[in-house]
Amino acid sequence: MLMPAPLRRSWSVQQTPLVIACLLLGTFALGEDKGNNKKTVEEIAKSARQSIVVVSISGRDGGQQGLGTGFVVDAGGLIATNLHVIGEARPISVQTADGKNLRVTAIHATDRNRDLAILRVAEKDLPALPLGDADKLAQGEAIVVLGNPHGLKHSVVAGVVSGTRDVEDRKLIQLAVPVEPGNSGGPVLDMLGRVQGVMTMKSAVTDNLGFAVSVNDLRPLLEKPNPVPIERWLTIGTLDAKEWTTLFGSTWQQRGGRLLVSGLGQGFGGRSLCLSNAAVPELPYELAVSVLMEDEAGAAGLVFQADGGDKHYGFYPSNGKLRLSRFEGSDVFSWRVLLEKPVAAYRAGEWNRLKVRIEKDKFLCYVNDELVVESTDSAFTKGQVGLAKFRQTVAQFRRFEVGKEVSAAKTDNNLVDSLTTTIESLPDLKDIRPEQLAKLETEATLSSELLRQRARELDERATELRRLAGDVRAASVCQRLAKIAAPEVKQVDLLRAALLIATLDEEDIEVEAYVRQLDRLASEVKSSLAKEHKDKPISDAAKLAAMNKLLFDELGFHGSRSDYYNAANSYLNRVLDDREGLPITLSLVYLELARRLDVNVVGVGLPGHFVVRHEPAKGDAQLIDVFDGGKALSQEEAGQLVQDNTGEPIQPEHLRTVSERQILLRMLQNLLSVAQQKKDREAMLRYLQAIITLDPVSARERGLRAMLRFESGRKQGAIADLDWFFEHKPEGIDLEQIEKMQQFFRENKPERIVP
């Protein structure tokens, strides 16, 4: 097992070449030489192998649920690993390199914050690894990692220390080393064979970057353990079998009156059930629970009329909406979604109270005491009640109740009004006197909830205002963009338009400053050409050679390799500042520089890789790959680029000259794609507004903007976007569907705004 870690852009320092270089050299002398006792990778692997163990845990069905690594730290029977490797309340198996099984007798020590655990086994006289001092590790120092990646037991990989980083409030050792699931808990050894760290996670961005907990964090656990006998460990958080029956896997645990669930269920769609063993009351009756999900993309809630197998009803939030489903079997074809809709009373990211009232001929489903649906579906009329989760959902449940009438989430309206009046009359925090809170303190639970509700309302209003500010800015930028690049503009100002696109995201760009910067580059090329050629005519070839020398040899402009999909690569100001960009943005710089030198260079939009073409007054045209340092491309090489990017052969239309407006639209589509991957609706709306400014008849983008406007709370803007379809009647668009969508927008509330 290995926990993924997000990676900030500033950390992305091309670790892969560093590791490969080390492996090719067969030596790891990048760090300071600390003595002549260093060993080779082979020697370290051989001597440490007997101290490495495979740590695995069993699932509910007795099969292996996870596998990681551990290593002996004390001959008396102590083995270090990660806490996430052993999980909680799961049988643990430990096996040595020679296949011997060690009997775990206790969890000797744990540290949840540092993801460390020490196991005690019954066997003695085990070969322990010596512990080093990670504070003395040098950046670039060679290391060796031993582990069991992907279940391939006792594997060895070499790399280097690339620094220390704060990850999730923990200081970890950053390693340039290939890391895979199963390396977790393995030792990080220096070239003297000493443990310097414990592998804990890999980067989610690259396979050649990992993180380790310092061995210095392991020492306190050895000095002051908190042992738990294995018999006790196996009962931590387990549910009382007299009260609950779980089905279809996942990990269900109990913590201080709450039920916690995590892990993918074994049922279709990751379904897992936790059914109450208590007798169900006679009709009518109610069941309720409060649920909090770690991620709104998940699904978890109530089940009722369950047969103890695959059949039951379910009422639960899913992807921010409330859903009522009937489950008639084990696969998707036997599942029936009876209702799914957004509900204003549902509070995303917070505790929500779900309730179902079951009567003779119907049942009613509520969220936070607001009726969501009344159903007369009668496929199932009896059965158990309980809880369910789907997909990879991590959720908490509290206050599960079943009875003739369960407690309501709401309180007396008069009391609510009175407390609300008190809250609204409160001065600023700095001016509040203790006696002013006395009335609220007498109803502390309700007052706290009302205060949080007021805070949510203010957060939502603040979010709306920030979005409006963004809308006003984007509209202003697009107005300026229209003046220099709209369809009616005959001569598009490509450079200024591209810089304006960047201002959609980066407010403080001085467009004219970057225009002058490119003018200076052109002047520098002209000056060098004048010195070299004096009064002689200067050919296009000489001008292009001088451009290439300045841009690529002297200034270091280059194509982005390690951070290709970063939005900054589409901002022309950042390309000029960082001298790094995408094929299209680097080509734009090249086009503008060539124009200033009176060289006829045009853009060519090869699928997946933009290039330029020099078209001289006399002679043959020449394709140029600016992304690859101004390399001249043959037709065959261009064809190979298209083949590599699309899997299809190059077509004549791929080699057509593209207009300045088409270049700008392609840049905006690149930005839109990045925003879509990040699910950044606000950025998507900005880019769509710019696209529609340049291409007002684009039906696809206008339809997408309508949906995004509705989802982000801009209901009237969404309706207005759909009006455009009725006014212009674009070909290939089903206006009946547009009418239905518009009617849906009119009759429904937008999704709740989440700051």
Protein described:
- Its EC number is 3.4.21.107.
- This is Putative periplasmic serine endoprotease DegP-like.
- One of its GO terms (biological process) is proteolysis.
- InterPro entries: Peptidase_S1_PA, Peptidase_S1C, SirB1_N, TPR-like_helical_dom_sf.
- With about 750 residues, the chain is α+β, with helices and mostly antiparallel strands.
- The chain has four domains: about 5-230, Thrombin, subunit H; about 245-405, Sandwich (Jelly Rolls); about 495-665, C8orf32 fold, CATH 3.10.620; about 695-755, no CATH class.
- The chain contains 19 helices and 36 strands.
- The chain has an eight-stranded antiparallel sheet with strand order 6-5-2-3-4-8-7-15. Strands 16-19-28-21-22-23-24 form a seven-stranded antiparallel sheet, with no helix packed on it. The protein has a seven-stranded antiparallel sheet with strand order 17-18-29-20-25-26-27, with no helix packed on it.
- Strand 13 (about 195-205) and strand 14 form a beta hairpin.
Task: Tag the structure with descriptive keywords.
EC 3.4.21.107, 755 residues, Jelly Rolls, eight-stranded antiparallel beta sheet, Thrombin, subunit H, disordered N terminus, seven-stranded antiparallel beta sheet, C8orf32 fold, TPR-like_helical_dom_sf, 4 domains, SirB1_N, alpha+beta, protease, Putative periplasmic serine endoprotease DegP-like
Helicity level? 25-40%
Task: Supply the number of structural domains.
Answer: 4
CATH topology of the largest domain: Thrombin, subunit H
**What is the count of DSSP helices, taking H or I runs of 4+ residues?**
19
Mean pLDDT: 87
CATH arch. level architecture of the largest domain: Beta Barrel
